[in-house]
């Protein structure tokens, strides 16, 4: 006995009998199978990043990959963002901010210290931390400089009114 083919939703013939029907794949089976990085691979990634940044000059041009000329425009755009943020009800406090991946403190100096009483910095490169300390000390708004990579840094809960990440998240 010959059976007629079943027609699927897209118009294709399906000669499978009900015995051949498979359940739809689970969500897990549909996920692309990308290898999960091992701790060793992650360590190498961050070691390579640390090595890269250790060869970069502690200057605005160095922080912006040779595009130091955009710093003013970059800061101005971020300033507009904060103006809009502080118009919100309720607005965040203006006591303490954390600058993540702070580099030499370009964003802290040009932006965050205008809005906050105290600014802490988290930065993995020691030379950048040293430059930031020298550059920002006279402002009277410099808090703690944490010489630590963001992959290891855990901010104190409830300490900050704002945690700022600019030009750094792509490196995590």
TrEMBL record:
Q: Polar residues bias: where?
A: 1-20
Taxon lineage: Eukaryota, Metazoa, Ecdysozoa, Arthropoda, Hexapoda
A single Gene Ontology molecular function, please? N-terminal protein N-methyltransferase activity
Protein name according to UniProt: Alpha N-terminal protein methyltransferase 1
- Enzyme Commission code: 2.1.1.244
Biological source species: Culex pipiens
Q: Which GO terms describe its cellular component?
A: cytoplasm
Name its GO BP terms in alphabetical order.
Answer: methylation
Record Pfam families: Methyltransf_PK
């Amino acid at each position: 006995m010959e059976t007629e083919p079943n027609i699927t939703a897209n118009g294709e013939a399906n000669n499978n009998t009900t015995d051949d029907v498979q359940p739809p794949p689970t969500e897990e089976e549909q996920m692309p199978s990308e290898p999960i990085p091992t701790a060793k691979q992650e360590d190498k990634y961050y070691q390579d990043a640390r090595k890269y940044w250790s060869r970069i000059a502690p200057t605005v041009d160095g922080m912006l990959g040779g595009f130091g000329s955009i710093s003013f425009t970059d800061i101005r755009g971020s300033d507009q963002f904060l103006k809009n943020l502080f118009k919100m009800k309720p607005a965040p406090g203006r006591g303490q901010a954390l600058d993540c991946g702070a580099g030499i403190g370009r964003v802290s100096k040009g932006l965050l210290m205008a809005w906050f009483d105290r600014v802490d910095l988290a930065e993995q490169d020691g030379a950048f931390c040293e430059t930031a300390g020298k550059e920002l000390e006279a402002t009277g708004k410099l808090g703690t400089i944490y010489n630590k990579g963001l992959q290891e840094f855990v901010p104190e809960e409830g300490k900050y009114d704002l945690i700022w990440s600019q030009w750094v998240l792509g490196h995590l």
